[in-house]
Amino acid sequence: MMRRRDTYHIYLIIIPLLWVSKSWALPSYARQTGAPCAQCHTIAFGPQLTPYGRQFKLNGYVWGETKGSIPLSLMAVAGYNQTSKDLPEAPAPHFSTNDNFALNELTGFIAGRITQHMGAFIEAAYSGVERHTAWGAFDVRYARTGQLGGKGIVYGVSLNNNPTVTDLWNSTPVWSFPYTGSHLAPGPGAAPVLFDGISERVLGPNVYMMIDDHLYLEAGAYKGMSDNWLDKVGLSAEENLHLDGLATYWRAAWQFDKDRSSYSIGVLGLNVKQQPDPAARLTDRYSDIGFDATYQFAGDNGISATGNLLYVHETRHLDAAFAAGESDSSANHLNQLQLDATIAWHQTWVGSVGWFDTTGSNNAGLFPAAEIDGSANGSPNSRGYTLQLEYVPFGKTNSFGAPWMNARFGLQYKGYQRFNGGSSNYDGFGRSASDNNTLFVFAWLAI
Amino acid sequence: MQKQQAGFALILLLGAGGALADECAFQVTGGDAIRFDQRTLEVPGSCLQVALTFRHVGHSAARVMGHNWVLAKSKDVSAIANAGAAAGLERNYQPTNDPRIIAATKVVGGGESDTVTFSTAELRPGEDYTYFCSSPGHWSVMKGKLVFRAASKEKLAATTSR
Ligand SMILES: [Cu+2]
After folding, report:
1. CATH fold for domain A10-446
2. Model pTM?
3. Inter-chain contact A145–B85, Cβ cutoff 8 Å?
4. Record: contact A56-B77, CB cut-off 8 A
């Protein structure tokens, strides 16, 4: 893939370094609070937060009367990967064209209280696919409580490295379904920048406030990291975004509950400007605006259910890419809709279904034909579903080995109806969308 | 509140049964999960006093998964809960002498219980009351509505003349 200078172009779609997944129910939080993982997470182990879990994060990861618990956790995700049709080449060195077993990640965390009002969620991950270690999610926050007009408020500031890593709901990209997946299967090319488009290559503060446990407001600004800093966190100069100014992020959400159900609706946005060539002064601008909604039900009979929705519309003004002949036009757009629903029995047996649809401007410059990763008709349109069954044996009150033993075993099937613009011969090299359908059988462990 | 408790004990001691009818005594339980067993309590308008017992039916120690039962007007809950989380376990996760707290038990752990008795004099029918656990963050789930029913005049008269 062509890359001008050492700029990471957001419109260039395959993002191998960001295959490191985001994380999860951390045993170190359970040891700090003394509460089982299942208190904070809808499934005993995994990223979906309960209303209490949201409170814990909102308040800075500091709660817990256990003194001297060490805020360290370790997690591993490994699995068997099978695509419907073999790839023409091995997806990574040391692997074959299909039926691979891979260690997705071995991740270490610093997660827990640092001072009375300050806590952390910091990860460093080794990718068994890339055989490389880099930082992952980073969220260090300081939070306080107070009053505003007689209502309780929680407010704070987070220093973090990815828009939506701070978010409290599981509709937004960093913490959204399916939480894990094959790192060896082809993935659709295009996604709005909000979906990990600048993750881990930026750093910045977000300020946030929750008013009366209903209204959540957040705003943040991110600075692109220099080559030197990228090197320090395990990334390379090739990943440099060369941001022009700050990337800005904003978020507002309203949550409420009734009986055993809780709901949220919200809006969010991200604006990013890249200047790939300092001499040319032309920029590529991305402006995302999104709408999300969540639903959660925790029944008395052990049945729980969750649902998430996110729709993001992105407008792109790719003046630099257009001038460089890499885009057919300056003005483009991209939309992404994703939905998921999960039902769990006693937080142990879990079934999930997800659906996504990406549509956008045709642009043969941005989406050229190429084997596997390309598009024959210059279209970013992709659509597909995910089916998942999981068994989560531990992490509940009185679970064996609590709070040390945590595991999740799953079967995940990803199916594509449309992939990079087509269902048959989508890449111009005879591959069908459904050839990329992927079975991922995984084990996910943490201590 | 302690005074009220003492007063209540005295009434019982004197055998003034009926002053606190069964319908005015309530029990709410919670366990090792962040959850109350009841989501609404209906207090008849005829009750002059209410006795509320919170029983922790789980095994966890108070510092791990302690719960209490706190009553306030719904509009005051977020402010009390946030201040309570900051107050710490030694203050039962309650802001000291907060007039917005109508009644509260102490924080208890597995196998323990605590009873609070309070007068209904300051409760108003139609007002929106919420009870909740003030352990940090628990109130997002551990909460319920307390409904104070208007008493018919005859019934109230009958109760007071007893
Ligand atoms: Cu509680």
Report:
1. Porin (2.40.160)
2. 0.90
3. yes
4. no
